[in-house]
Amino acid sequence: TTPVSTTTTPVPTTATPVGTTPTPASTTPTPASTTTTQPPKVCGHNQFWEQCSDKFCKRTCENINGPIGCPRVCVEGCSCMHGFVWNQNDTECIPVEDCSFECGLNQHWSQCSDIQCRRTCANFGQDVPCPQMCMSGCTCDSGYVWNSNETECIPACDCGKDVCLENEEWGSCANPECKRTCQNTNEKVCSDCFPGCVCRAGYIWDEILQECVPEDHCSGCGINANMSSCTNGCEPTCQGPSPFPCPAVCIPGCACLPGYLMDHHQGHCVLPSECSSVCPRRKTWCRDLPTNRVTCQNILYPQCNYQSNENQTSYPGCVCKEGLILNELTNECITPRHCMRLLR
Asked: What is the pLDDT of residue 145?
């Protein structure tokens, strides 16, 4: 008999594991790289590419001077270079000089105009603060300034015709701290001068009326008096000092010249030696009023022969007759008994 072969065919060592599915060979070709070179950003003449362009707020000849509302979004695109603006169709950037601008008489176009700090008759000769930013526009020619409405350029020497009031003229020194007034007629030397409106010859500034008046009609306050910017009705008079509390305020009005007193009986300011010795009922004339003149309210009696200190000024006036005391509330002389009743 033929013997049975004991040689068996070996099992391949490379076998698909149990429970797994073999991966078929891919039939899809490998795609090419997705990274490609972006085309160059091409802009027109006098333009440049930027990430945040002026696409939604383009500067043109029409809006070159005014503010432009721009949305707070950035859109990349082409913008005009400095010194250029978009043309009427927004297709090209043209030089600002090519914009057709028409300025008025005595004006010219300037890339850095005075549009934000215009020189006018009102501020001529003064320092006018200007922002450090240039804006193109129409500017007055040399020797000219804008009128009060800023609509025309007029010769600077004609400013007075535009803004000065009656009895005023244009002058080289209009500093209010340096001019003579009805309230201060002393001549002043002023180093800080600037042009402006001043009073004409023969006129002077009245601080009360706020206008130029003839020098001989300056105060209208009568003899030995002039206008004062600060009075309160408490100035000494021939009839004595005011018995009422003085308000701590300044009121413009007439005041006697230094060394003079108002005499209500004569109706004008006089020297103390010229005061009328006329007193109302229950009062008597006293050549030297006591500086410590007291009243019913402080329970002391005045003394006519009171000697004042050297630093105090003595005035004549009316005092209560002997046996009476002044009631400050009514400026009348009453008996001490009535005075005590008021103090209860």
From this structure: 87
Alpha carbons 237 and 260: distance in angstroms, whole number: 9
CA distance linking residue 163 with residue 121, whole number of Å: 7
Decide the pairing of beta strands 107-110 and 137-140: antiparallel
Rounded Cα–Cα distance for residues 48 and 7 (Å)? 86
pLDDT in tens, 26-55: 555 555 555 555 666 789 999 999 888 888
Tell me phi and psi for residue 157, to 5 degrees. Answer: -70, -15
- Alpha-carbon distance of 137 to 118, in angstroms, equals 11
CA distance 328 to 296: 7
The pLDDT averaged over each successive group of 10 residues in the chain (344 residues) is 49 49 53 56 90 84 69 86 86 84 83 80 72 78 83 80 75 79 72 79 80 75 76 77 69 83 82 83 79 68 45 70 83 82 70
Alpha-carbon span 65 to 67, nearest angstrom: 7
Which domains does the chain show, CATH number per domain?
107-163 (2.10.25), 164-218 (2.10.25.10), 225-276 (2.10.25.10), 277-344 (2.10.25)
CA distance 197 to 167: 10
Beta bridge partners of 221: none
Write the burial class of residue 26 (CB in 10 Å: 0-12 exposed, 13-18 middle, 19+ buried): exposed
Is 95 strand, coil or helix? strand
- Nearest-angstrom CA–CA distance, 90 and 255: 74
Q: Spell out a b/e string for 235-259, using b for 16 or more CB atoms within 10 Å of the CB, else e.
A: bbbbbbeebeeeeeeeeebbbbeee
pTM score of the predicted model = 0.31
Alpha carbon distance 186, 291 (integer Å): 33
CB atoms inside a 10 Å sphere around CB 143: 10
**What is residue 281's predicted lDDT score, i.e. its pLDDT?**
79
